[in-house]
């Protein structure tokens, strides 16, 4: 084995924290599935090692139709991840007095990680912080092309400084979108495209409709989340 090969083999892997923003209204098995897909894909590169996944429910001021209070969405995420040894919830975004831009949410997470504050406690390894990457679906990446939705500075920071892990959806082609978008093309090395080979149509919108109809949603969302929804009589109207 050559010296260069030995150096590559001995090189420390970059520790990664996957960070996902969203409504989680309610959190579904598909939301959790994205984390598993992303972790497998990054770990298989031999360059990265995913050490944690963070879920950040959006602030109530986002004013999305049907969005229930953040206190319930936070608790549902906690219920869904209670049996996980690597998934955690960050409630900072949800508890602010107003809606926060994604870039600011990531900045806050980075600051708390540097200080070892919850939920990032014990994620500083040998005095070095892990790298936070935004985990999202192809639809969020494609929203970068919507006029006036994102600032150029925020897109540069998210795609370049933080990096993105993008999960494909049926009918999407995020790699082509990246190549066709000059800003993203320049940050291509920081954008990881992960293919979902097992497509499903689980969506929070359909879950809410099923709950309003009085239909069973078992096996679509985690059982502890179903218990929380029933206990608090959520999504009934």
Please sum up the structure shown.
This protein has 237 residues and is α/β, with parallel strands linked by helices.
Structure overview:
With 237 residues, the protein is of the alpha/beta class. A six-stranded parallel sheet has the order 3-2-1-6-7-8, with helices on both faces. It has a two-stranded antiparallel sheet with strand order 4-5.
Roughly what is the average pLDDT, rounded to an integer? 92
The tally of helices reads: 11
Helix content: 40-55%
Low-confidence stretches: 4-9
What's the structural blueprint in terms of helices and strands?
Blueprint: H1 3-10, E1 14-22, H2 29-44, E2 48-57, H3 70-81, E3 87-89, H4 92-95, H5 102-115, E4 124-125, E5 128-129, E6 131-137, H6 138-142, H7 152-162, E7 164-167, H8 174-180, H9 182-186, E8 191-194, H10 204-212, H11 223-232
Parallel strand pairs: 1-2, 1-6, 2-3, 6-7, 7-8
Antiparallel strand pairs: 4-5
Q: What are its keywords?
A:
237 residues, globular, two-stranded antiparallel sheet, six-stranded parallel β-sheet, alpha/beta, 11 helices, 17% strand
């Amino acid at each position: 084995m050559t010296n260069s090969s030995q150096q590559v083999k001995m090189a420390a892997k970059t520790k990664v924290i996957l960070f996902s923003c969203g409504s989680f209204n309610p959190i579904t098995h598909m939301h959790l599935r994205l984390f598993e897909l992303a972790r497998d894909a990054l770990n298989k590169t031999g360059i990265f090692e995913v050490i944690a996944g963070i879920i950040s429910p959006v602030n109530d001021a986002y004013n999305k139709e049907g969005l229930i209070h953040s206190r319930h969405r936070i608790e549902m995420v906690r219920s869904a991840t209670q049996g996980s040894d690597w998934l955690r919830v960050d409630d900072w975004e949800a508890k602010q007095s107003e809606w926060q831009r994604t870039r600011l949410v990531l900045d806050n997470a980075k600051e708390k990680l540097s200080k070892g504050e919850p939920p990032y406690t014990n994620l500083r390894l040998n005095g070095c912080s892990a790298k936070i990457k935004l985990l999202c679906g192809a639809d969020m990446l494609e929203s970068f092309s919507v006029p006036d939705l994102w600032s150029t500075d925020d897109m540069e920071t998210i795609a370049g400084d933080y990096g993105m892990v993008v999960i494909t959806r049926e009918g999407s082609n995020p790699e082509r979108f990246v190549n066709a978008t000059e800003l993203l093309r320049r940050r291509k090395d920081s954008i990881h495209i992960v293919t979902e080979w097992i497509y499903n149509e689980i969506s929070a919108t359909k879950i809410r409709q099923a709950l309003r109809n009085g239909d069973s949603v078992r096996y679509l969302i985690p059982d502890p989340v179903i218990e929380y929804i029933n206990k608090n009589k959520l999504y009934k109207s």
